Amino acid sequence: MKINFFKYQGAGNDFILINHMDSPLKNIDNDLIKQLCHRRFGIGADGLMFITKHDDYDFEMHYFNADGQLGSMCGNGGRCIVAFAKHLGIINKETNFLAVDGPHYARISESGAWIDLQMIDVEMITRDGDAYVLNTGSPHFVKIQEDLKNFDVFNEGRNIRYNEIYSEKGININFVEDFGNYLFVRTYERGVEDETYACGTGVTAVAMAMAKHKNQRGHIETNIKVLGGDIKIDFDYDGQKFTNVFLCGPAKLVFEGETDQSI
Fold first, then answer.
1. I want to staple 204 with a disulfide (CB 3.0 to 4.6 A). Which of 20, 136, 176, 227 is the partner?
2. Contact between residue 215 and residue 224 where contact means Cβ atoms under 8 Å apart
3. What is the average per-residue pLDDT within 174-185?
């Protein structure tokens, strides 16, 4: 049985999207998802998403990591599935949809190429040595790093992700260098188990951690550069809680295709 798929990318974070609006999800083949995401033996992607119907929202997002396992919230994936929903004619300029971490609102630019996705509020940030640890829909470890362009993100990130504290549940490792008018971020992502070109929940976590680190308050807009392009994070911070959080960036259809595998 052939199935139609769509390939999207948001700042270089790439995803396979499949329209499942007409039937419920069941009997998910996790090994097949892993194969489809494989960059040598499959389509190739950082993750795979199904879009399904929901009685109370415009749609529901189901995200699977490249390892084939059900994932936590993916911010860039969220922006891409909003663009996909518009492509399918499910929504127009704005939407309310459901993801694994709860409801999300998003708005779409006039061109359709830029998505502002509202993320969850965040209150708890802890420390691990000189790093910050927080959950923005997915768990993140944020560490300031000089000369990040030449830093060994894969090995250093993997060492932290698989240490005795984080190995069981996993965590995404974000390294950040502050250039004043923007932050440069590189991320080792669990589930992909490699560096990705961008991580939406990761750059959101970085922006929050740096606001706390620099004792900023009020409405804060943070420009972020990742390997795959530019992203902007907006939020309000009163010193205790981050609210009105928006992850803003591009989402683009790359190509459409068919696979003869049945999902």
1. 136
2. no
3. 98
**Contact (Cβ atoms closer than 8 angstroms) between residue 227 and residue 194:** no
Q: What is the pLDDT of residue 2?
A: 81
Which positions are annotated as active-site residues? 74, 199
pTM: 0.95
pLDDT tens digit sequence for 35-71: 999 999 999 999 999 999 999 999 999 999 999 999 9
Q: What is the DSSP letter of 149?
A: G
Provide the CATH topology of domain 3-119+251-259.
Answer: Diaminopimelate Epimerase; Chain A, domain 1 (3.10.310)
Identify the pLDDT of residue 96. 98
Give first-to-last CA distance, the chain, whole Å.
9
Whole-angstrom distance, CA of residue 125 vs CA of residue 87: 37
* Helices 75-87 and 200-213, axial angle in degrees (round to 10): 130
The structure tokens listed for 79 are 């922006």
CATH 3.40.50.11810, domain 125-248, yes or no: no
